[in-house]
Amino acid sequence: MLSLPSGGIFCRSIMAGVKKPAHMAQTGMGKMRGKINLEYYKVFDSVCRSGGITAAAEELCISQPAVSQAVRQLEESLECRLFFRTSRGVKLTREGEVLHSYVKRGMELLYDGEEMIRRIQNLETGEIRIGASDMTLQFYLLPYLERFHEKYPRVKVNVSNGPTPETLEFLYDGRIDFGIVSTPFEARQEIQSIPVREIHNVFIAGPKFAPVLSGRKIAYEELMSYPCIFLEKKTSTRQFMDRFLAERGICLEPEFELATSDMIVQFAKRNLGIGCLMSDFAKEAVSSKEVFRIEFEEEMPSRRFCLVAQGRACMSPAAEKLFRELAAEKAEST
Asked: Going from the N-terminus, what domains does the chain have, and what CATH number goes with each?
């Protein structure tokens, strides 16, 4: 039963129970839809839950007249009575009961939303969307993801796998929080880029080529005499190699153009040609002597893995946390 202080909210003549014609009520409500102050519903819900005006005022930390005024304004806006007097206080009208069934669910959803935001901010849940290639994922990101997952097991990590140009497009479109790419790349001015690891391109070949290419330093021009195995042109590894060779007047057209560096190693093992790839992919095969690394008179410059982002304001809380950890790790190692 709801209690109501004397001189309460139902003294206006429009509360006398006289209803307007249906067509007028519908027209008025149509114009009013979405314009009622949502605070009125919050007060209405508190009155219903707490049992009266006084209790609602205490719960909301406002005055009793303010609670009365809010309920009165809601009743006037809806053009119906929400409460009526009884000998023991006040009680919800039929309209009030219908309204509260909706307001109650709405408030519960709002509170659930607040709780979910709290959990996301505390990394109790959430999602990180990262763009990375096979290379940056395998030889840089994976250990950090493992460590992050151990600390925040309920955060979902979604990795969009693709070469550097595709990762940048995902970033521009807002489909990822941040990316890990490899140089060279050209990004928009607003993109933040942080170098995090140095990498090197190498050329490898199978044992069939050892008698003519192993044990000496060769000129890059000699590659034109042999079959070559390269990545697709859209990859940063291929673009860097092509640009380096073009600056020396060399243009190589590969016999085999592959999608992954792992396959380049497999092709080289079978003596199908000379492959160019990032050194980490070939390390195991070189160590086991299934392939050998070709030495050159001029060493190809190093490249970098880089974190790229449009700004932390675009990231989820979990993504910002991981991005900060990756950037801090780089700062500590320099």
From this structure: 13-121 (1.10.10.10), 135-191+307-333 (no CATH), 201-301 (3.40.190.10)
Which residues lie closer than 8 Å to 160 by C-beta, 6 or more apart? 129, 130, 131, 132, 166, 167, 170, 175, 176
Q: Check: CB of residue 253 under 8 Å from CB of residue 247.
A: no
Query: How far are the Cα atoms of 223, 292, 306 from residue 208, in angstroms, in the given order?
Result: 15, 10, 37
d(CA 232, CA 164): 12
**Half-sphere exposure of residue 196: CA atoms within 13 angstroms, side-chain side:** 25
Q: How far apart are CA 195 and CA 304, in angstroms?
A: 6
Q: Which two tokens stand for residue 187?
A: 């990004």
Distance between CA atoms of residues 268 and 55, nearest Å: 80
205-260 pLDDT, tens digit each: 999 999 999 999 999 999 999 999 999 998 999 999 999 999 999 999 999 999 99
Predicted model pTM: 0.69
Q: How many CA atoms lie within 13 A of 144 on its CB side?
A: 21
Gap between the Cα atoms of 53 and 65, Å rounded: 9
In the chain, the amino acid numbered 207 is P
Helix (H) or strand (E) run with residue 179 in it: strand 178-182
